[in-house]
Protein 1
Amino acid sequence: MSPETTVGPLQLSLALALIVTAAATLYSRHRLTGVVLFLVFGVFLSIYWGVIGAPDVALAEAVIGTGVTGALFGYTATVMPRPAHDRRGSIARTIAGLAGGAGIGAGLGYFLTRAAAAPPGGSGEPVGLTGQATAAVPATGVEHPITGVLLNLRSYDTLMEMVVLLSAATVAVAFAPRSDAGSSTRGGAPASEQRGPAAPPIVRGFVSLVAPVVLLFAAWLLFAGSTQPGGAFQAGAALAAVMILVQTSGVGRLRIGPAMICLLLLGVLAFIAVGLGGLVLGDAWLLLRGEHAGTVTIALECILAVTIGASLAAVFLASAGRRR
Amino acid sequence: MTLLADIVTVLAGLAGAGFFTAGTLGLLRFPDLRSRLHALAKADSLGLGFVSLAVLVQADSAGTAAKVVLVWLLALAAAATSAYLLAGEERP
């Protein structure tokens, strides 16, 4: 359970590639070049997380950090108008940024390695946070420690993350243009314009081919999460990716309507219901123990994945509904 | 049997590396967008095919082998689609 952190040529060259692509992303002349370089940076970062023994983070980085964020950036760079004044960093700002980044990185690295290695307050076992979490996993009813920690041991944090996601989606939907968010009778724009520019047939064919595969992958990630890397957040992001692909290619038409709003609310409501269940049936608010803990966790994960997918897609749809 | 698989892996891996190098050379040296896309989409897809073959003969189960083939087929479709989209940028 403790991956030996070795620093070899592979780790060093990946770290170097990360720094180079990050710099190239920040200092690229064209916005679209910057977006593509950001995607390359994300790929390197995912590989790096995988290499240092954190496959869950690698998956999350690949689908959320690179996939969904990259889609938003790509949309911004290709469709949104360029801001009137483009502020380029001066040398002083560059130096200040480098120093600040190095300081924050060194500080975080110091405290994180301390936290992972520190013994828990004088008891006999010389284990840090990793050891405590691994020791508590059997009580959560799932086999994979990360899922156990996320949905059971620190479920209060995860509930708050869902609330943050709901708030973000609410704000995005609230600012979405009316013709996109309202009913089809309102607005009066012709159907072809509402649908957006239709992608070429070859792209629609590609999306029809790939969307089922990605859906299958999302389902696999969801159910794999109880025993191996994967889980609700990764599956939800893959689901959002399908929705974004289907929408932008014109294969389907997704609308932020009542059904979407229900999906957005479902995750937080289900989480609160599970928390109340713990209060009524068990010992405490959000405490999930006992023989059914595993089943409840997986059911909750399914609902959370749908809500996460809907929220991420809603943020994209609300922003992408705004045309020049 | 293992020796045969190893020989196939080495040969196919080398061939894949060769095609990737040729594709990269073409991307860097060809004059216009479409020639560059031609180098990238064709040579790299074939290179990935050879690398997939090299991995394929080392797979210990049919499921793993099928996943490798699936990865190659999806990459083929993605390369063709993105090359088409990039070429469309130049269409009058």
Protein 2
Amino acid sequence: MRNPWAETGNYKTSYRQDSTIFATYLEELSLVGLLALLVGLPFFLSRPQMFVVDLILIYALAVLGLNIITGYAGLINIGQAAFVGVGAYTAALLAPGLPFWLTIPLGGLAAAAAGAIVGIPSLRIKHLYLAIATLAFQVIFEWIVGHAPLLKQGGAIPMPRVVFLGYRVGYKNHYYFWYFVALALLVLLAFAFRNLLRTRFGRALVAVRDNDRAADAMGMHPGLTKIFAFALGAFYAGVAGGLYAYFSRAVVIEDYMLPVSIKFLAMAIVGGLGSLPGSFLGPAFLVLLDLNMEDFANWLKSLGLSYAGVDIASAMRPLTFGLVIVLFLVFEPRGLANWWRLVRNYFKNWPFRY
Amino acid sequence: MRRIATLLALLFGMALAQEVHLMWSGAITGPTSDAGKYYAQGIEDYCKYANQEGLTGGLRIVCETRDDQYNNANTQRNFEQALERGDPAFLGYSTGGTLQLKPLIQEVGMTFIPASYHIGNIDPPNSDYLFLPIASYSEQVIALLEYIAKQEPGAKVALAVHPSPFGRAPVPDAKKAAAQLGIQIVEVQEMTKGLDYTATLKRFANEGVEYIVYQNVAGPVATMVKDAKRLGLTIKHAGAHYAGGPDLLRLAGDAAEGFIWVTSYYMPDEDVPAAAFVRKLGKRFKRPADTLESVHYPSGMLAAAIAIEAIKRAHAAGKPVTGDPGRAAVYQQMLGLDFDPGLAVGPVTYSKEDHVGVDKLRVLQARGGRFVPITKPFQSKLFRKVHYGK
């Protein structure tokens, strides 16, 4: 007999049951527990700690978008930071006249439009060539921002103070307020992401990734599917950009340049490409790793460990970042999401081994 | 016995002294770290020196240099930590990081001294609490144009700037100043890490350019200077603070000979008390030769000296020097600061209207593998007129 609290066997008898999000009540309860924990988190953290948590949530949104393009649709994208930037600059330009709950989604839509345009070359090219096309978009974005007086040529565009339902957001509650906004958006868009694969559009993405000619033969339109992937992934990035603009209080080009795109790719790889939990684990892991390495580097520095002017302590952070990516690529290409899967499977059967 | 008693009294005094934290966030690794690492060392060493020599008014200043890897998010996090801890002032670094923090700096009222001399840092809005240690890049470039106009009236000049707010900021003011000086800016070329500037230089030569004025970092400038030498061009090169100096000599070698440079700092090999002081500190804290040769080492010292002086004066005035009241007290002292720490070519003076510390600059020229001054310290005559209209 099926136990609704534990998955004691495979009792699924229809496709509908097979594609259900929650297999057991325990899974639903775990999610509710996690959300309750996340809602309660700000009551235990200081403002600088909230800064880090906010950053992870915003990066997770951008990495979710990257996972749609690169993880699901298999289209290499080296311009995700530029999509984030399109969202940020759109929000910055609209913010003086519109409330944040409009500017952020509008930023997402502007980025989606940019994504649809950038996706056009994917109709004809793929793999490395497509990667270069997205790189070109990143470069074009940086050039346009750098030369547009409207965008202060990459200088800072300050974001206005936000007042929401009479609640004025100042520096003391800034990161707490944006935490809840980011969390709400992340939950909403993560559910959308999770549901994507249950729709024909989501299945088309995977089919086109695995073999676009076979997908074509099955009646899917590979070209439109790829453009859809770019537009949707860029929408997520644009929403992340709008949020980042408010979060950082001013939009500056340096936050949306090529190294940031590389960082998003690293987060997606470390987290696990094409995985929902990986989109949270990757950003969290790399952001926290950097923080811990900073502390470790400072400790090394305090010991005075340097030889012939080579600052070993300072080299630790960039070295670790590179090393972690290489190690994951070699030893765990499925990323942290695979570790998460193994842990879940272990507890699913616990106390039995199989 | 007396020595032991003195030592004990000193240790007891140190234990009793109020601790005030002062944080710097900048690039010890990553882009521009070739300047940032020396800047950080300057802050660390001056801080230790000030504590050891009793220049802190009985306070113990704990200076902390954080590597933000030229990443604005890291800068923001560091600033938040300093704010949370109750630091009364903050030492910043990059143009982007400073511009992004301006709204928060204004909101919390924290004195902020960046290593970026970008004029936008102290231009409104949100600029009340920002203080440049020396004259801005815009003033530096205009000072160079004034020098060029004196040397060769009606000269044809090309501006070669970094493709960023850091590089572009002086361009509008430079154009206005050039028009008043009767010199011609024939082209503004944005340049980043190029491998070869032959085409750009040939174009400049065809346009009759006599001077290239750089607002850039030393790397690309060195490449262009070397290319110009290789092509046998007679164009003269001149640059603002971060475009030249010992970094350029190291990168460009003898191709940098004749390079004209403007800065407010003394050269480490000069026979002046400021340079001797910098050498003394470097040796005392066992810094390697490359630190002692870098102009960014005294730059960091100056930033630390300004902040420490303001904190010391606030404390001497009987005001608190930490937390919200500490920030307000230090800011009040900054507005009336007028002292000479002996690290630059002029005194540090601030007021409510003037947020530039050292107003004076010198023009130097690379001769025989070192920069030698070719003017006395002076203040740009045109900068205030073209930028503020007064």
